[in-house]
Write a structure and sequence with these properties.
The chain is mainly alpha-helical and 93 residues long. The chain has one domain. The chain contains three helices and no strands. Helix 2 runs antiparallel to helix 3. The longest helix is centred in the middle third of the chain and has 55 residues. It is rod-shaped, with a radius of gyration of 27 Å. 0% of the residues are buried.
Length: 93
Amino acid sequence: MIYFQRIGVPIRVKKMAAELVMESRRFAEEVDLIKREMSSFLYHYKDVVLPALEAEEEELRKKMKEGYTVLILLFQFCCRFVCCWVMRYASIL
């Protein structure tokens, strides 16, 4: 800051430099927050939602053995597809 005072840099330029530094810090904080939120979401999905879907799948398998319709098979396939998709993208983090 003393360097700026010696050369007589206008206050607007000083303000712009300070704003750029603060904006850079805010962006770094935002990136960290987004990463934390994404990992929390994926862990929740992996630990809570996927087991529930797997339990529902098991229940559907039992019902299928009892003679339920093809619609249950389609629902089961969709659940499995979603589970596989989430697990694949959860492994990226």
